Amino acid sequence: MKRMLAPGIVYLPLVLAGCADRVGARPPLSAELRDYLIEDVCIGTDGTTTADDPATCAHHRDIAPGAPSPYLVTDFDTTNGATYSAMTSLPVTARDGTPLVLVTKAMEGGFGAGFRFGFDPARDGYDLVDLSSADYVSFVRTSDGGCYDQLFARRAGARTLGDRAGGWVLFPRTAPSGWPQTSSINVTTYKLQLTPGRPGCRDGHSTGRTYWNRPAAYRFETGKTLFAIRSDHFANSDLAGAGNALERFYFTREYGFTRWEAWVPLARCRKDYGAASPRCDADAPDNPLRGRCNVLNATGSGGPGRDRWGGRDWVRIDCRDQTRFLALATPQHMTAAGVANGDGVDDLPAR
Length: 351
Hints:
The protein is mostly beta strands. It is about 5% helix and about 40% strand. It has a 15-stranded antiparallel beta sheet that branches. It has a 3-stranded antiparallel beta sheet with strand order 2-1-3, with no helix packed on it. The longest helix has 8 residues, at about 265-275. The chain starts with about 30 loop residues before the first helix and ends in a 19-residue tail after the last strand.
C-alpha cells in the first residue's frame, strides 16, 4: 500500500500483508471498537453538533453516517509551521448495504478554515475499511498518488466486498479492552491493481505478519495524550529479512485513523538512501521527521524512530501524525466522484 505523498516526504513502496480466511460464525463488531474507527463530533448542551475538538470537549459521539465533517485533523511541522496532510474517518454504506469506514487523505497542504474537499487521484488518497464481512477489520481498497486505485483481497481475482474482506488485516472485530496485550497472525494478501498503466504497479501477493495491541495511552505530536489501538503490518513474516518493511497504524476514539508510520531495516534504509543519509539516523539534526514525528515513543529502543525486530535494527523513514485540530468554516462532505468508484469496481454510491 503506497501511502501519503506530500512535498518533502518519502513514500514506502508497496507493503503487502493479508488475512487468514477463517471458517465459522463471526463475532459482532463491538461498539467499543467502532468508536476507535470513526471520528467523533462534539455535542453542545442543546444536543446539536459543534465545531469543537473532540479531544477536549465534554460531550462527543461518533459522527453520523452522511453528516458533513465540521473539522480536519492535520499534521504539523515544527521546523517551518507547514501542514502537508489531513484526514477524516467517516462511516459510509456500500452500494450493497455493507457498513464501511472511509478514510480520506487530503494532501494539498497549507490547510485553513476555508478548506473545500476535492479529490485529485494524483495527489490525494483514501482507505476503505471493512467492518463486518470477515473475522477481522481490514483494508479492502486504497488509492494513493503513485499507484492510484487498488484493491486488497484474501484471494486472487476477488472483486466483491465479501471476497475482499480480510484482505489487509488490522485487528479482530471483538472489544479491544478484552484483547491480550499483544496478539499476532501470519496472513496473506492479494493486491489487485485497478488503475492501468501506473509505473511499477501491478498485481501481487505476499505473506506477512500482523500484530495488534490492546488500547494504551500515547502522547502524540501536538501534546495530546489519547488512548489508541496500534496495528503493525510487516511485509514478510520473517522479521529478520533484509528487505522487509513495516507500516504502523494508530486509531483513536476521538479521530479514528490518527497516525501512520513506515519503517524498514537500517541496512535497507542505507542501501536505498545512502549510508550517510540523515533519514537513516533518527537522532540526526537534519532527519526530515524530527519536525513532525519526534515525540511519540512506542518503541523498545528508548527513543522514537528506531527499534529492533528479528535481530535487526530498524528505522522509521516516514510518518504522519494527524492530531492538529482545524475547525472548518463550512462542514464538508469528504467524498467525491472517483472515491471508491471507477476502474471497473464501484463500492460506494456515485456522487
